């Protein structure tokens, strides 16, 4: 019995995994009251339709008022409603669907973009399915099904059907779509009873950006000890290093015919070079939130989103220039990523940019001296900042003195710059211009 209670406790604090959300934690503490409320919301969304919730609420109010006195026969209304719920539950349980559903969902979408989500539904039972709702659990707040979730009026026994809808990314971030659930609201559309068909799936909503048409900054080459092992070389003196499986974006000229014939799938040669263009992209993430932003965290900071959009545009431009990009972003979580060469690796950077959040404390304090020394070996560096102060000026001067081609970009909302006035060499950009796609050159 004690073992069963422990399992129940662990399962309770894990939260409703089928909904794709986790109970919040703060300093290692998780509120049992909030967790219980989350479970109530999850079970209501799983088993009750919207009319069912309304009728259940009305039934609860009627029962509450009936406890205040028996002079008014209002309590008599509660019994037909309860009988209606019981009848719908009994009939729905007997006729609950036995289906298999496969959901095809893209791994990532851009903010504001709309992509198709397709479903393949198969009825495994010998009886027809009536009133079938597919993917009925509510999605995260950062995405939205534009045409609603798919619905089938009837599905014949042992038959299949293909359904489709469209999903739109509303806000940048990493989301988890709920488990795929297929249920029926037959006969009275109060209960939804069915089966779970697939686990939750992650979805990345990366920042939208306007590609840069020009980048007025020389990108040089420096000696990199050991070279880079997983890079696609273009117009450089390289040395054959090994073979690996073909990835999208690789040069078809590097396919190794003998190895491909032996293993049965495309294999490309790895080329190692000692000199190649390498660029550091250092992001400033310190944006203290106002009281209104704390009360409404779903409203993004336009200046911060403009900085993320500019970083995505820079990564795209550098990828088209065949540069290796080292991304450094410190905030609530330290991100440090080195891409390969070519546009195939830009998606990896966009995945990281989708997850970056504003920091309350000084982000550059998270950059250790070892990281700063490593940046000093890079040929080019971009600093994307929100303000100019002594610490940011010190980092800029340290990289410049180390021989790194450094360019600082200051993203503001058009008001007066906070802190120390920036020198004329620092490029100033307006957040509204970046979000509107008017910044085409840098």
Question: How would you describe what is shown here?
Answer:
The chain has 442 residues and is α/β, with parallel strands linked by helices. Among the domains are: 99-206, Immunoglobulins (Immunoglobulin-like), CATH 2.60.40; 275-435, von Willebrand factor, type A domain (Rossmann fold, 3-Layer(aba) Sandwich), CATH 3.40.50. Helices cover 29% and strands 27% of the residues. It contains eleven helices and 20 strands. The protein has helices at 2-14, 32-47, 50-66, 78-94, 257-263, 291-295, 302-320, 346-355, 369-376, 390-401, 431-435, and strands at 99-104, 108-110, 114-123, 129-134, 143-145, 151-155, 160-169, 173-177, 180-184, 193-198, 201-206, 221-223, 239-245, 267-272, 275-283, 324-329, 335-338, 380-385, 405-412, 427-430. Strands 12, 15, 16, 17, 18, 19 and 20 form a seven-stranded mixed sheet that branches. A hairpin with a 5-residue loop joins strand 16 (324-329) and strand 17 (335-338). Helix 3 packs antiparallel against helix 4 and helix 7 (302-320) runs antiparallel to helix 8 (346-355). The protein is globular and about 85 Å long. Mean pLDDT is 81; it is low at 223-237.
């Amino acid at each position: 019995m004690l073992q069963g209670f422990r399992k129940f406790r662990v399962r309770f604090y894990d939260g409703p995994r089928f909904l794709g959300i986790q109970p919040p934690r703060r300093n290692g503490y998780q509120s049992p009251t909030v967790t219980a409320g989350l479970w109530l919301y999850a079970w209501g969304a799983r088993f009750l339709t919207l009319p069912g919730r309304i009728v259940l609420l009305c039934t609860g109010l009627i029962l509450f008022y009936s406890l205040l006195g028996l002079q008014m026969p209002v309590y008599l209304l509660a019994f037909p409603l309860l009988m209606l719920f019981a009848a719908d539950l009994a009939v729905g349980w007997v006729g609950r669907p036995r289906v298999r559903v496969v959901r095809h969902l893209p791994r990532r979408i851009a903010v504001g973009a709309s992509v198709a989500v397709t479903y393949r539904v198969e009825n495994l039972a010998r009886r027809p399915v009536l009133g079938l709702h597919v993917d009925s659990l509510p999605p995260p707040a950062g995405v939205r099904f534009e045409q609603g979730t798919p619905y089938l009026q009837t599905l014949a026994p042992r038959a299949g059907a293909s359904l489709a809808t469209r999903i739109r990314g509303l806000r940048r971030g990493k989301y988890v779509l709920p488990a795929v659930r297929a249920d029926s609201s037959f006969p009275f559309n109060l209960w939804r009873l069915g089966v779970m068909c697939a686990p939750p799936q992650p979805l990345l909503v990366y920042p939208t950006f306007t590609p840069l048409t020009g980048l007025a900054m020389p990108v040089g080459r420096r000696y990199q000890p050991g070279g880079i092992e997983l890079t696609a070389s273009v117009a450089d003196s390289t040395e054959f290093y090994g073979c690996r499986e073909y990835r999208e974006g690789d040069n078809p000229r590097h396919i190794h015919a003998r190895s491909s014939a032996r293993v049965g799938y495309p294999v490309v040669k790895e080329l190692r070079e000692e000199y190649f263009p390498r660029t550091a992209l250092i992001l400033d993430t310190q944006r203290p939130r106002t009281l209104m932003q704390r009360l409404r965290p779903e409203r993004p900071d336009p200046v911060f989103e403009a900085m993320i959009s500019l970083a995505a545009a820079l990564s795209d431009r550098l990828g088209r220039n065949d540069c290796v990009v080292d991304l450094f972003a410190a905030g609530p979580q330290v991100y440090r990523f080195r891409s390969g060469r070519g546009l195939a690796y830009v998606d990896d950077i966009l995945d990281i940019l989708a997850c970056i959040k504003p920091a309350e404390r000084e982000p550059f304090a998270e950059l250790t001296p070892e990281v700063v020394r490593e940046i000093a070996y890079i040929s080019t560096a971009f600093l994307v900042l929100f303000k100019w102060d002594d610490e940011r000026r010190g980092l800029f001067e340290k990289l410049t003195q180390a021989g790194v081609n450094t360019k600082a970009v200051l993203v503001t909302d058009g008001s007066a710059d906070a802190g120390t006035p920036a020198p004329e060499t620092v490029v100033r950009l307006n957040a509204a211009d970046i979000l509107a796609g008017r910044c085409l050159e840098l």
